[in-house]
Amino acid sequence: MNIYVLYIHDDRYTVPTVDSLSASSDEVAAYLMENRLGSSPHYFAAELWLDERLIARLAKTPDQTRCTG
């Protein structure tokens, strides 16, 4: 198992939230990141890192983000 670092960009904060997740492969970790990104209407992007290697970066499309009027 690898321990990945997840940076979650949230429209309520100016600094990304840092979290970690455990996964058996980069593909599994990227899948978990995608699910996490979809778990809140406030999350608009996420980055997944393993040590100094960027595994994935994902952002919601404008129609997937909530309106903040």
Describe this structure in words.
This protein has about 70 residues and is α+β, with helices and mostly antiparallel strands. The chain has one domain (about 1-60). It is about 15% helix and about 45% strand. It contains one helix and four strands. The protein has one helix at about 25-35; strands at about 1-10, 15-25, 45-50, 55-60. The protein has a four-stranded antiparallel sheet, covered by helices on one side. A hairpin with a 6-residue loop joins strand 1 (about 1-10) and strand 2. It is globular, with a radius of gyration of 12 Å. The model has no long low-confidence stretch (mean pLDDT about 90).
- Straight-line distance between termini: 42 Å
Rg, rounded, reads: 12 Å
How are helices and strands ordered from N to C?
Answer: EEHEE
Q: What proportion of the residues is helical, as a percent range?
A: 10-25%
